[in-house]
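Much of what follows relies on a compact textual record of a protein's fold. A record is reproduced here so that you can trace the correspondence yourselves:

. . .
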Amino acid sequence: MKRITLATTLMLLAPTTFALDAACEPLVNASKARMAQPAWHSIVEGDGIKLEAIKVDGQFYMSEDNKWQKSPVDLDKAEQIAIDSILNGSLKVTNCKEEGTETIEGVETTILGYDSEVVGTDLGKGRVKIYLGKEDGLPYLSTFDKTKSTYRYTNISAPTL
């Protein structure tokens, strides 16, 4: 009986098949840090499309072509789903490497490059660069293919609907 208990305990403590490389942990930590922020504003631009999202006091707003509306989705929950997908291996994140530093709107950042793909599809497959604040670990910029996302965390207010 003691052997079964020991074997079970060791299996539970062993890393999962999809264990995240330690070099990729800053990516997950950045998502968690962003979720913890009381306010943020993100802008995603690519292929002629501009999408914006704002979080203020637990409320989420989205805009396409400058038309603001309350978000039908809790974007913190969506971020948690992305984190869970990375941790369970359905969103594969590999080859994480520091690729330099850059100042983004006065914030010193470390550039983390990584390869991503949604397992079993061609979605999200490619090299991503995310610029993480050296002091706060928050994402300030990310680039992927022809898409650029920017993030800010100060002087954010709810949009006029």
Summary: The first helix runs from residue 2 to 13.
